[in-house]
Amino acid sequence: MAELRELVATTGRVPYQQLLALLRTCSPTEFTRQAKHPLLVGHKLYQGELVPRQTMKTGTMRFNIVQIQEEMARQKLALEEARNEEPAAASQEDSVAQAIFVLRKKLPSKTLPNIFTIGRASENDIVIADYAVSKAHAHVTVSFNSYTITDLSSTNGTTIENQPVQPNTPAQLAAGTTIRFGRLGFVFMRPVDLYTALMAKLHPA
């Protein structure tokens, strides 16, 4: 049986289909043994694949005309931005938004064992190849099973649940929260939660 560490690329990214194949032969206990820390799951992948679909309501839905107009305006703006965006950049962002990154140390490393560096440069533990991300963007620190994230004075900043992280000031990370590095969002998922969500996809009720 393959192990998670064998699937992880030098960027820290794990191929989605190979991860699914691993989970088919892996118990929750075994997976959490292999994935010792939470994973960064691309927000688009999380929303598209891992969030349970809402059951359709049978009652009549009430619409607010102002809300409809606002939503139409947002969609129009998003469409215009997409048209103006360079295709290569859009494709790259879409790819990263559907990625899964594993918190693990890249060896050899210049940082402490409990610090995981994140950035565009290849020497980071997690390499996010997008120009919205600084070369040395942030790092995650683990201490007694508690996690914090520190923005390293990045150009486009880091947010937790849309709240800016002050540069060089550790901010607490809770499981299930959304972190953004510039425009790119990731959900900070515990291994057991990711396992449960992916198994539900593999074996729908």
Written account of the structure:
The protein is an alpha+beta fold and 205 residues long. The chain is built from 7 helices and 11 strands. A 6-stranded antiparallel beta sheet has the order 2-1-11-10-7-8. Strands 4-3-5-6-9 form a 5-stranded mixed beta sheet, with no helix packed on it. A hairpin with a 2-residue loop joins strand 7 (158-160) and strand 8. Helix 3 (28-34) packs across helix 7. It starts with a helix and ends with a helix. The relative contact order is 0.18.
Brief rundown of the structure:
This protein has helices at residues 4-7, 16-24, 28-34, 43-50, 65-84, 87-97, 191-202, and strands at residues 39-42, 100-102, 115-119, 126-127, 138-143, 146-151, 158-160, 163-164, 171-173, 178-181, 184-189. It is of the alpha+beta class. The chain has a six-stranded antiparallel β-sheet. Strands 4-3-5-6-9 form a five-stranded mixed β-sheet, with no helix packed on it.
